[in-house]
Amino acid sequence: MAVAADLFMSLDESLLIFILSLIPFKEAARTSILSKRWRNLWKSTTNIEFNELHFVKPDQPDKFRETQKRVFIDFVNDWLHNFEGSVSFHQSPTASTRS
Fold it and tell me: Do residues 99 and 55 both lie within one domain?
């Protein structure tokens, strides 16, 4: 098992970023805990999904939902500020539209 881990860790950073782009964004972000080398790789992935429902729970009182929305917006802004590539925006077909 250690040999396989060493081979994986020896991959070029651009290949690791490509691999991270193949998995869901939330899972790619979770790889940041693997090691210092992985800490910021997820920031360069091209498969980006910001889903408000991961932060804002509909069954919570309005006061808590507003706080959760601010946390979500802060997370998105921080991510965009630290992103190391180009960004294009697409709305998910399942995203709700609000006025």
Answer: yes
